[in-house]
Amino acid sequence: MRSAISDGLAVLLALVDAFAAxxxxxxxxxxxxxxxxxxxxxxxxxxxxxxxxxLMVALSFFGAAGALARSENAxxxxxxxxxxxxxxxxxxxxxxxxxxxxxxxxxxxxxALGRFTTGQTTGSGLPLELTFYPMGAGALxxxxxxxxxxxxxxxxxxxxxxxxxxxxxxVAYGWRFVGTGAARSGLPMLAGFVGCLVGGVPIGFAxxxxxxxxxWIDGALPGMIFAQQMARGIDNxxxxxxxFFILVGYLMEANGMSVRLIALLERLVGRIxxxxxxxxxLSMVIFSGISGSKMADVAAVGSVLIPxxxxxxxxxxxxxALLAASAVMAETIPPCINLIILGFVANLSIGGLFxxxxxxxxLMALALIGVVILIGGDARLTREVALSTAPxxxxxxxxxxxxxxxxxxxxxxxxxxxxxxxxxAFAALYALIVGGATFRELGPRAAARSFVxxxxxxxxxxxxxxxxxxxxxxxxxxxxxxxxxxxxxxxSQNAGASPFLLLSILILIVMGSILEGAAALIxxxxxxxxxxxxxxxxxxxxxxxxxxxxxxxxxxxxxGLGLYGACLIGGVPIESTVRPMLGYLGLxxxxxxxxxxxxxxxxxxxxxxGYQ
Length: 612
What we know:
The chain has about 600 residues and is mainly α. It has 26 helices and no strands. The relative contact order is 0.12.
């Protein structure tokens, strides 16, 4: 019986993976055709945007379902790992039940919203329910995987989790008649959110569950609003750049473009003092300008250079710490996904943010390179460590094809040739067709695996974006943004802009450490950026400061989820990275203060190129 269930789940996961990959491929085809018809034939396809957005909503939930089935969803594990085995099993069971309840709520309400919108159409005349039924189907698959994971627990742990859930439901029901004002739903939401984080609930589910607490306790909103807001959080053409840039990263790794470029960097600078570490920083600079996804960059660079660091007898913990610090540095190098998300939620120019992030990233890169040269020791390129012994000219020929992607991306934004989504689609086609034809390493199986991996990673990111949007909507109903804005404005009026900047940096470092980066920006970006504008701080400058602060928190020990990801890729315990990581983060924090209080570093280039 158990074997039959496992086989069934394996078949379902294979179908989910295949469908998510097909959705991503279909989205790439639709956007590519739309670009071709618009720019070449001067005959725009009216339905292309609606179809592309609908496909992305479905992709997000099917991709997230695949990620859940593989237990790839990130959560704060710091507190749970310090519990005794029995207590940890019980906390894990409660967390699994929360994931199950949340996934089931999404599926139920999405299907209900599909029925409610039957007969309604989008702007181009397409049935509106075609957005919500696939979303519900993806969430239903997510629910099945969550139920299977919950049922794998020991019976006593299952009984404990159900008892805790019933007790909390009773307390919540009673609180509806006791609590008054903002405390009626605000306190249970805060308690639920903190409890989810401490209990290791994956970030996306923690955010969505917190929004559900408000809907359950307040009782004024139908559950369909919850599903509608989740869909609204990702139903935007701009956000399609996220899965496409993630796909670029996986295709580069599969067709050998990544290894060839890193090999060239090793040959050029690997023999200087601390050369391997310099290569790591420069690799992150280049790859962040191509794939857009920080974890994809960390995986591409770390999977190549961390083994090289081990062969050179360098401390792998220090190498992983530098890898994570380089990821922080690269947070503002276009086409960073967090810059795209911030531009979307805060109504800032994405092209302007991309240009504003270049010089700050350059400052941090130079600081890291200077430090690793000074303390680099014997981390140099040797014949035993080198990735390739091919002639330099051959390495250059291979790297030029890869650097063509950088040219495409930066030229597209510099000259305003296309939108971020269109540029990302063209970059994916370039990596798939040109990279595959040039190096002949990308077979059908590897290409398919790249699409599956990209769809899963995109689902992880976009599900968090959707969940954060539902929570941001609830916070808006509670007038939390207005209260925060008034408090921050009062602070700036009494003490000036400097305390506002410092407090904003502190908020994003702390929340970036607790939350996944995108969630922190979605919740706090729209709250803080309008306040910054009211006190005379340029939005592009402030947006870059927020993204860097979020990045420091994301990779800060002991809670930073990004640091856990880097440690998994490098195969080292987090304890071995804490000491060097704190040193690198201290350096990056000093750079952040310079960037925050010298606005010319961020604004000179965008103003030169016409962005305001």
